[in-house]
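Researcher: Good morning. I'm working through a list of sequences from a screen, and I'd like to move beyond sequence-only analysis. For each chain I'm collecting a predicted structure so we can compare shapes side by side. This is the next one on the list. No need for commentary yet; just the structure.
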Amino acid sequence: MQIYFFDLVGQSRSEYDYRGRKFSEPRQAFQLAQLIAHDLEVDGADDRTGWSVNVRSIDGQKIFEIPIRDSDLVAGCC
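Model: Good morning. Structure tokens for this chain:
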């Protein structure tokens, strides 16, 4: 098991994950990062368009990044 951290990163500020989550393979961390990004996209309560979900290892290395898209593009509305 490896610990992965899921940080929300924007241009002017970031929200860091200090607890992390354990997964047996990186694919599972990638899927959770996609789910977090999608949830933030469709929620729209906090405008985090242009932010990203950065997944990092326990030693602080960024493993991958999932962009948070505009909620209008995700919902396909208008």
